[in-house]
Design goal:
This protein has helices at 38-50, 60-69, 85-90, 100-126, 134-158, 170-173, 181-198, 213-228, 244-256, 304-310, 327-330, 340-343, 386-398, 405-418, 429-439, 446-452, 456-467, 487-492; strands at residues 54-55, 58-59, 75-76, 280-284, 324-325, 344-349, 355-361, 381-385. The chain is mainly α and 504 residues long. The protein is globular. Helices cover 42% and strands 6% of the residues. It has 18 helices and 8 strands. Strand 1 and strand 2 form a beta hairpin. It has a domain at 4-221 and 481-492: Serine Threonine Protein Phosphatase 5, Tetratricopeptide repeat, CATH 1.25.40. InterPro entries: SusD-like_N (IPR033985), SusD_RagB_dom (IPR012944), TPR-like_helical_dom_sf (IPR011990). Keywords: Cell outer membrane, Membrane, Signal. Pfam families: SusD-like_3, SusD_RagB.
């Protein structure tokens, strides 16, 4: 059901020279006659989706694990030797600008954006060849959806970023500086509104996994939630716009569509035999056995010692590089919570028969579905779940959007009931965040929720005070709400970009 991502985006040539901004394909694809029929545009739009798949030795969701989950209070991975990128990120180091992870995600996101821009430019020039005619608007909407999705990640990670709304060459890119977050949001919102108006509510068969109008509504609701958050950083993703009612309207449209529902069994949401279930609003597609089609992100979670005795291939986090679940997160669960067992691996039997204390996520792993190697997991990655839609609705209400306390309590208690827990009442924002944390542990949503609610500095300072036994975490300050601009980008042209405050 997820074949469309496998078509090769053959006409894209990526810039790799370190002396140039790695922002765009260098081939002028329109001049060689590639886009001369519907099939060429179909290959092009499939290549846009491929930018969210496997790139080099990782896939796009791997960066959520490192940049979001490892940054949050869900993971404690100080690393005594400190050689892994996620150790420095976990430790709030001020010297992240030279990390490969930071540079790679910038390049991956902008190359994806330039793929989108290539399609959009060619739709203007040659879109008349597409048949049926309605497919042209759909392809434009899909390209604009992915562009908005990537820009939203860039804003959350880097704050002010350069805007490219059409194909540009690397030379032209050298003249385009960073734009304010509010300007980037204007492009994101425009793109997602177009996607809502021009995409179907669902796809089926081989097209399942393409962007839909419901997915666009959900992402746009997250945009409004984030944009509305308190402005703790002068160039951060939250600008205190107070647009919670706009987010609520979009979330209610998803809810009232009747298209989605909470599944009864929490574990079945992530079952390899149950992909595309009623809980999934939008996910990234992976399939085992195809070249560059399987996912790597599950490998980001587990320890290599566990892999040696449980998998037919090597991989996982080595030694003190383990992305260990924080005691703070584990202690937040009730003993009766049905989500603990399918979310965590707390120990395993090692090579010598000893029981190893582990504490890593196994929500996305099933040994019976291990592919040919550590890059070949077939489980789709959930970007937006229906339960998230419901809990974002509760968040909007608590932030002042229309709705009642009973609406909030009902949403949270439905989630708790599935987890085997008793109902609670008078839920406030802190309680909602605690409930979200347990529901979405390992899904890389915690950091974003802390940032957009303005709780991030308080929560992470408490985490440092109570969890940092290795005394590796640096000062928790507003500067670190976003990441540094990659040093390679700073060095390309003096004065084009200035570094984000607080980074060396």
């Amino acid at each position: 059901m997820k074949k469309f991502i496998l078509i090769i985006f053959s006409f894209v040539v990526l810039v790799s020279c370190e002396k140039e901004l790695n922002l765009a394909p260098i081939s002028q694809v329109g001049s060689n006659g590639f886009f001369e029929n519907t099939n060429a545009f179909t290959q092009g739009i499939n290549g846009v989706y491929a930018s969210l798949g496997v790139t080099g030795s990782q896939d796009y969701p791997s960066y959520y694990v490192i940049l979001d989950e490892s940054r949050s209070d869900n993971i404690y991975s100080p690393g005594q030797s400190g050689v892994r990128d996620w150790n420095a990120i976990n430790n709030f180091s001020s010297t992240l600008a030279t990390l490969g992870t930071i540079n790679n995600i910038w390049n991956i996101a902008y190359n994806g954006i330039m793929r989108c821009n290539t399609i959009l430019d060619q739709l203007v020039e040659n879109g008349g060849v597409i048949s049926p005619a309605g497919l042209k608007a759909q392809y434009e909407a899909e390209a604009r959806f992915i562009r908005a999705f990537l820009y939203f990640d860039l804003v959350k990670w880097f704050g002010d970023v350069p805007i490219f709304d059409k194909f540009v060459s690397p030379t032209e890119a050298l003249e385009i500086g960073r734009s304010p977050v509010t300007d980037v949001y204007n492009l994101i919102i425009s793109d997602l509104e177009f996607a809502i108006a021009n995409l179907p509510a669902s796809f089926s068969g081989a097209d399942q996994g393409r962007a839909t109008s419901m997915a666009a509504r959900g992402i746009l609701a997250k945009v409004y939630l984030t944009k509305s958050g308190p402005k703790l950083h002068p160039n951060g993703p939250c600008v205190a716009s107070g647009e919670y009612d706009k987010a609520l309207t979009l979330l209610n449209e998803i809810i009232n569509s009747g298209q989605f529902s909470m599944v009864d069994d929490f574990e079945s949401i992530f079952d390899y035999n149950n992909e595309g279930n009623s809980e999934i609003v939008w996910d990234l597609q992976f399939i085992s056995g195809g070249v560059g089609a399987g996912g790597y992100y599950p490998t980001e979670y587990y320890d290599e010692g566990w892999a040696r005795v449980n998998l037919p291939f090597a991989g996982g986090n080595p030694g003190d590089g383990s992305k260990r679940i924080s005691e703070d997160l584990l202690n937040s669960y009730d003993d009766a919570d049905l989500r603990v067992e399918p979310t965590f691996q707390l120990n395993y039997v090692g090579d010598s028969g000893d029981t190893i204390d582990a504490k890593f996520y196994d929500k996305f792993m099933d040994k019976d579905f291990a592919g040919g190697d550590r890059f070949d997991w077939s489980l789709n990655y959930p970007i937006l779940r229906y339960t998230d839609v419901l809990m974002m609705k509760a968040e909007c209400i608590l932030q002042g959007a229309s709705g009642s306390q009973s609406d909030v309590d009902d949403i949270v208690n439905n989630v708790r009931a599935r987890a085997g827990l008793d109902p609670i009442s008078d839920i406030n924002l802190d309680v909602l965040l605690a409930e979200r944390r347990k529901e979405f542990a390992g899904e890389n949503l915690r950091w974003d929720a802390l940032v957009r609610t303005g709780k991030v500095l308080e929560v992470m300072q408490n985490f440092k005070n109570t969890e940092d036994s290795a005394e590796k975490l640096e000062e928790i300050k507003a500067d670190f709400i976003i990441y540094p601009i990659p040093q390679k980008q700073i060095d390309v042209k003096k004065g084009l970009y200035t570094q984000n405050q607080g980074y060396k």
